[in-house]
Amino acid sequence: MQRSLFAILLLSLSALSNAQFEVPTELKTTEVAPGIFMIEGADGFAGGNVGLLVGEERIVLIDDFVEPVSGILLKTAGEIAGRPVDFVINTHVHGDHIGGNATLAHHGATIVSHDNIRKRMLADEETDPDGLPILTFSDSVTFHLNGMTAYVFHVAKAHTDGDAIIHFPDQNVMHSGDALFNHMFPYIDLDNGGTVDGYIAAQKKMIEMTDENTKIIAGHGALASRADLERDLKVLVDGQAKVKALVDQGMSADEVVAENPLAEYHEEYNWAFITTERMTRTLYRDLTE
C-alpha cells in the first residue's frame, strides 16, 4: 500500500529533527549566484532546501518546505523579491518539499511538477486539492525568465519516481532536490518508485552537467559542489557493491546487517533518518526485491 504523503511528512519531521520538530522563526538565505538564492531553516527544521529565482519578470520557488513554514517562506521570499511568487517547481512528492503548495497557490503561484507527483498526490486522500500541480511534464520543461534559462528535467526512479532537477546553465547552479543528501546517507524511497540504480544514474547525470565551480543546492545539507556529489556517489556505489557481495553469498537481511558492510562510512554518513543500518537494509531490499 502506498504510504500517505501525510505519513511521509510526519516521518520526515521526526527523523530530520531528532524527533523534536520546531517550526523555525526565521529562515537563512544565501545568494548562490546573482538572482538565485538558497533558503533553509535558521533555528528549526523547515524541510528540504528551497531555491528562489528573482528578477524583473517572474519569481520562482523550487520547493516550499513543510506546511507550518509556508507563512514565513512567503514573507521571506517577498522581502527578497519585492512581490509575490509566480511559480513553484516541486522536485518530488515528499511533504517536507511540497507542504506549502496550497498556501503558495492561494497567493497566486502556479504549481509545476513531474506527472508522477500529481498522480501520487491524487491517489492520496489526505492531499489538499488546492496544492495540486496544475502544470506537469513528462521529461523536461524549460523556463526562460529574468534573462535566465532554467532547465527542469526528470530523472527516472531515483529518490522517487517523480524527481525533477533544475539546472541554471548560464549561472552554473543546480538544484538537485533529494537526488543529493550532501554528506549523508541518502533516502531512496523504494515505496514511492525510487531505486538505487536510478539514484546512481541521476547523480552521474548531474556530474556530467556540472564542473568544479558549479554550486549545487542539495535537497538536504549544506550548499554542495561537484566534488561533494562525486564523493557521495562513490560511497553509494561502493556500499551497493559491498551489500551485493553478501547477498550473492545467500545472506539474509539480518545477516547482512550483522556483517556491517558500511562500517567505514558510519562516522561521516550515519544520521537520524537514514542510519547505517537503514541504508544497509535499503540496499539489500533494492537488490533482492
Structure description:
With 289 residues, the protein is an alpha/beta fold. It has one domain (5-226): Metallo-beta-lactamase, Chain A (4-Layer Sandwich). 35% of the residues lie in helices and 23% in strands. It has ten helices and twelve strands. It has helices at 5-16, 70-81, 95-98, 101-106, 115-122, 196-209, 226-247, 253-259, 266-269, 276-288; strands spanning 27-33, 36-41, 50-53, 60-62, 87-89, 110-114, 135-137, 140-145, 148-155, 163-168, 173-181, 215-220. The strands form two sheets. Strands 1-2-3-4-5-6-7 form a seven-stranded mixed sheet. Helix 6 packs antiparallel against helix 7 and helix 8 (253-259) packs across helix 10. The longest helix is centred in the C-terminal third of the chain and has 22 residues, at 226-247. It is globular. The two termini are 16 Å apart. Mean pLDDT is 93; it is low at 1-20.
Please trace the helix and strand order, writing H or E for each element: HEEEEHEHHEHEEEEEHEHHHH
**Which architecture does the CATH hierarchy give at level 2?**
4-Layer Sandwich
Helix proportion of residues, in percent?
25-40%
Please count the beta strands (DSSP E, at least 2 residues each). 12
Largest sheet: 7 strands, mixed
| End-to-end C-alpha gap | 16 Å
Number of helices: 10
Mean pLDDT: 93
Which strand order spans the largest sheet, edge to edge or round the barrel? 1-2-3-4-5-6-7
Q: For the record, what is the CATH homologous superfamily label?
A: Ribonuclease Z/Hydroxyacylglutathione hydrolase-like
Uncertain regions spanning at least 5 consecutive residues: 1-20
- CATH class call: Alpha Beta
**Taking Cα atoms only, what radius of gyration do you get, to the nearest Å?**
18 Å
Structural class of the secondary structure composition? alpha/beta
Q: Write the CATH fold name.
A: Metallo-beta-lactamase, Chain A
